[in-house]
Fold these 2 entries.
Entry 1:
Amino acid sequence: MHTQNVNVAASESPKTWGNGPKICVSANDLRTRWHVTGENGEKFTPPEGKHYPARNGSYGVDVLLLDETDVIALMAAGHNALPCLASSCGGMTALYDMGEKAAGRYLIASRGQIFYRTDSWLEVRQKYVRRASEVRSEEVQKFLDNFDAAMAAGLDLYKASDVARGIISLENALNPATENQATTDNADTTLNEIPF
């Protein structure tokens, strides 16, 4: 049985698994390669993946640093996307199937980083549930801390919720911009004529 625990510390490192050349691909579209542009305009593979959350509450997109041979094998098997077996919306954790021929068939991605990879379904199932609940717990705690700080600053429930979700910053909520807002202290409060 082949098992690789990739993440034993807070910073996940994709360099600890696989020996082949790495490519960065979207889990939703294996044909798209992700690159980072350097100072001189040259493109190179980023050192780590990333998770892009969706605004509508769904899971979002993982961009993962994978072995090129694994991606080629998946595409040869007819997959245009990495088969997702499970995902947790607020937990930013997903379980992917890399195919029967891959070394480490099941892959857990957490916050855009490869967290764990194994051939054992029983093992990956337990690790996935544990990791998804840990990340979800951290996200909820972060929300509650931001919400408490916004309420302590004197914001109402709605503004404090917007601050806690990251829609607006605490500074912008406390000091809203007034340059585009109509004021009532002017003598003429009519709107300017529209020129068309």
Entry 2:
Amino acid sequence: MKKLTSVVATLALALPLAASPFAMTTTANAATVTPKATTHALTKATHLPAITMHAKAATTLNTIHFAADQAIAFVSPAKAKLSTKKTYTVTKTITLATGKHTSATYYLISEHGKALGWAKATTMIKKNAPTAKLKATKKTPED
């Protein structure tokens, strides 16, 4: 009985090791399918007080990864899109340079506090401050 349990235990421990070379090749292929990221030089990064903004049109968000030892940003499109009906909060802004052109990019947070990603500053507009409506009153001549 002891031999049978030791054989079963050995097979149970050896089975994951035998299947691991097949699992490694499938994850390596899945990693190469991701969309290609473009490289930009990072020229400026600043933190902002929370600013509420809206999207001008339904545009795609970006995912940005930063290099640890250089001022380089790798920009790739995300699956999420901005909605024109929602309010977003901007907390950070960066300036990316490509050749002679520079563009500002905002870091967006949803109304519920969830980090969404990065969007170009040209696709966002500031939320209009509520304007006070003045009520016209008639002056009556005092007798």
